[in-house]
Design a protein that fits this description.
single chain, alpha/beta, eight-stranded parallel barrel, 10 strands, 27% helix, globular
């Protein structure tokens, strides 16, 4: 059974739809360049309704110690998702500062990029294979691009992994069957505009995952 993460939630309505339709992980983006950005205290207030129902994930990009400490005291995430150029050594520090598990997003364009997973077997609880953004992009993810999913077919990794990048309600069932992904992540694929989640698309995505 594949589990799903709905990322970049910003409203009570969309968070409730994700929870009511069985999302196992819900993500708060704490990154000012993102259209889904939430201030830590806002995220803490919003996501408190998810505690005990789904794993709360704080999505950050090369975070400072101050930000991590703030998140630990306010949002109290179950996981911190590292979506920048963090090293395994930095991940150990993140874990110490937040007492949270680690999800490490790895940018993928071709099969050679999957080798980066080897360095994270002792530093991350989960890996995330996300489409490498175009050159010069302001965002490290959440831009709706996909990579060639066939490169994951038959592959095994030391850590449970998310498939991310370009997923939506229409293709996620096929993507799961093609890759065997134990976990999937969606953000822009359930939006009507950058940062604007659509409740119906969230529900449809989660229903499609359940049917895969």
């Amino acid at each position: 059974m594949t589990l799903a993460k709905i990322c970049g939630l910003t409203t009570p309505e969309t968070l409730d739809v994700a929870l009511d339709h069985g999302a196992a992980f819900v993500g708060a983006v704490i990154f000012e360049k993102s259209p889904r950005h939430l201030e830590p205290l806002h995220a803490a207030t919003l996501f408190d309704r998810a505690r005990g129902r789904a794993r709360i994930v704080a999505v950050v990009v090369d975070p400072s110690d101050l930000l991590l400490t703030t998140l630990a005291l306010s949002l109290r995430p179950d996981f911190v998702q590292l979506h920048g150029s963090e090293t395994p050594e930095r991940a150990h520090e993140v874990r110490r500062l937040t007492k949270a598990g680690i999800i490490k997003a790895l940018p993928v364009r071709d099969a050679a990029d999957l080798a980066a997973a080897d360095a994270w077997k002792d530093a991350a609880d989960h890996l995330m294979f996300d489409a490498r953004p175009p050159e010069g992009a302001d965002l490290p993810g959440g831009v709706g691009h996909a990579f060639d999913w066939t490169i994951l077919s038959g592959r095994a990794f030391d850590r449970p992994w998310f498939l991310a990048g370009g997923l939506d309600p229409d293709n996620v069932t096929r993507a799961i069957r093609m890759t065997g992904a134990p976990l999937v992540d969606v953000s822009s694929g359930v939006e009507s505009a950058p940062g604007v989640k659509e409740p119906a698309r969230i529900a449809a995505f989660l229903e499609a995952v359940a049917e895969a």
